[in-house]
Specification:
Blueprint (H helix, E strand, L loop, with lengths): L1 H20 L10 H4 L1 H134 L2 H15 L1
Helix pairs in contact: 1-3
């Protein structure tokens, strides 16, 4: 930066020397301001350029250093983000490649679960059928027992009715009187 500034000053002085060497024509007397107007403008320009050059030299270095540091940081971040994106893309590609295997595994798992559920339902159904058969057998046995009891009661009623008919048929008034007398005697 300092070399550029020095080169710029040398060029400015080189341009100023021919301008100062120029003389005004002798026919016209020139005033001091007119005679040195161009060299004064160059001197003014050089002072301005030197001040600007000094300020630029003083502040441009840290500014550009900070700017290049920021650019480096941004480049590193972008490289990191690119690496992360590539890693995610590779992961997605790997998953897509494994997708058929995963689908086949899921289908196999679903088939196994379905078969296991079918077997569980078959066992449950067999258990329920066995329970229903046992309950039906118990009800049939209870109904048979109730029917036998009803049949015995009916047979007993018929037997009692038949015995009553036979007894009435054999019962005469003399037999009735003898029975009553025997009952009364037993009461005494």
């Amino acid at each position: 930066m300092k070399r550029c500034f020095r080169a710029f000053l040398i060029l400015c002085f080189a341009a100023l020397v021919p301008a100062m060497a120029q003389e005004t024509p002798a026919s016209e007397p020139a005033s001091f301001g007119e005679k040195y107007e161009l060299p004064l403008k160059w001197i003014n320009f050089l002072i301005l350029a030197g001040g600007l050059g000094y300020l630029i030299g003083k502040h441009a270095g840290p500014f550009f250093e900070a700017r290049s540091g920021s650019i480096r940081k941004d480049m590193l971040e972008s490289q990191q983000q690119r690496k992360e994106a590539e890693a995610r893309a590779a992961d997605v590609d790997r998953r897509l490649a494994d997708l058929e295997k995963e689908i086949a595994a899921l289908a196999g798992q679903a088939k196994a679960e379905t078969q296991a559920e079918t077997e569980r339902m078959a066992r449950h159904t067999a258990d329920e059928i066995a329970k229903i058969q046992a309950h039906a057998e118990q009800e049939i046995a209870a109904a048979g027992k109730a029917a036998r009891t009803d049949l015995k009661r009916y047979a007993a009623q018929l037997a009692v009715g038949l015995a009553e008919q036979k007894i009435r048929a054999r019962m005469t008034s003399d037999t009735q009187d003898a029975l009553v007398r025997g009952f009364v005697r037993d009461l005494k």
